[in-house]
Amino acid sequence: MQAVVLVGGEGTRLRPLTYAVPKPMAPLLGRPFIGWIIERLRKAGVNDVILSCCYLPEAIEAYFGNGRRFGVNLDYVFEEEPLGTAGAVKNAVHKVSGTIYVCNGDILTGLDLVALRELHRRRNAIATIHTRTVEDPSQFGVVETDADGRVLRFVEKPKPGETNARDINAGTYVLEPDALDAIPSGRKVSIERETFPHLIAATQRVFAVSTNDYWIDVGRPATYAQAHWDILDGRFEKPAGHEVAQGVWTADGAPVPQGVEVHPPVFLGTDVHIEPGARVGPYAVLYKGCRIGASAAIASSILWQHCVVGRGATVRDGILGLEVVVEPEATVEPNTVAGRGARIRAGVSPSGQKA
Ligand code: GTP
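^ thats the input. predicted complex w/ guanosine-5'-triphosphate below
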């Protein structure tokens, strides 16, 4: 079975991080985010994965190549203009045959893909949508079903009173070739707003499968950080690295640096240099090549590759993009999301304005 993974979105909610790095390549504990999706597909027996690219595709292709290093055959399709979530699948139609999986490229989930496909087959569905139940569906696409799981309608971001349903589209689908035939070519098409409503009306063979597996949409800074904490807390799979002390992971098995106060959970990429006397964690993730000065303190924060934190500086509740510099003695404001190369000075926010 083949899978199409949608990785073409601009990731606007993760800006400024995504100005430099497309969301699918955002690091997550030892591999780029879509590395987790590819690994799950591989484990479910999917050998052929097509990445449907649009925004910053070079970074994705340069890293994953033909996929052999990751145990799958990877192929790519490219859009000049965004074709939307169904248009992007249609754009890959010449590369697929038979029943396929379609995965949003920003969902981390423990969903059992084989079981999803099996239910799809038993119900003779044209499309099966993975859903999950949430308390407040007002920010999501809600999927209304009958008692048999047959989808009756979609309600996008419902207003109070518009629907009683609380099952939301969780971004993984199984689609039959007939479903792909129903998507118009060469223009922008949304799978939620156009394709599924059309298939529901035309076939009544769209089904939903609701599960309560681990699931998170990493598309916002808070949820991207939460995915890190969930993995470090053992709520999903293990980080891609080595646990060198309880709750302390390093990408390459390097030992915990001497003289550093380490409070688990912590993840350190390769070539991270931390001066003695620094305090790291709890919940600190320092990716490849980060340099941390003496007496600096980092907690509840994620530092992308090659950040430099000066001596005595404090980083708490922040996400720092590539090559961010925190000057000595500076304090990064909580909830800062800093873009590539930002420079954070004492008392000044990363945009250069007074905090
Ligand atoms: P935001 O701009 O922050 O909403 O993020 P996004 O651009 O990723 O949009 P959204 O979260 O709605 O997209 C869901 C999934 O579909 C993500 O994996 C996107 O990469 C992907 N996606 C969205 N639009 C397109 C598109 O036009 N083409 C392709 N190939 N993928 C898309």
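The pocket of guanosine-5'-triphosphate is lined by residues 6-13, 23, 52, 54, 79, 82-85, 88, 104-106, 219 (CB under 6 Å).
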